[in-house]
Amino acid sequence: MIKEKLDDVIRTIPDFPKEGIRFKDITPILLDYNLTNDIIDAFISALNGVKVDAIVGVESRGFLFGFLLANKMEVPFIPIRKVGKLPGETIKYNYDLEYGSAEVEVHKNDIKSDWNIVVHDDLLATGGTAVAASELILQLGARVSAFTFVVNLDFLNGKKELEKYTNNIISLTNY
User: Could you list the mean pLDDT of each consecutive 10-residue stretch along the chain, which spans 175 residues?
Assistant: First the structure.
């Protein structure tokens, strides 16, 4: 049911951000508060039985549903951002993207040792960003208990990269 609703509103934008990429645009979802609530409820249902101490959201679209999910689950939301965006003491991780490379960071004191963390992002492509988030979590002595994505681009095999952290890899629709 949620998959069909998402497939009806997610747009495919050809040649964005560069030629040959078929970009999956989730922004139309944000126009429908009922669908947004359905997404959060679907994630909560899929996480039933998974220990969750906090939700990590990856900049920037991982903040959209990650924050709402954390709020509804009554756990902390922790942002992982591009380098230079967080004001406190941070740790950093450099990684490769589908089309380039990047470096992300998290506040050193936001993630507690032994916590069970859900990593949320809007879309799973090659897995580079989610791996980077996971490596930051591990460096701080916590565990990845699950990944949540609105969209998984199956053909890029990102899920395979995440299985070394957990087999709880949840996506609401796949392309």
Answer: 97 94 95 98 98 97 98 98 96 80 95 98 94 98 98 96 98 97
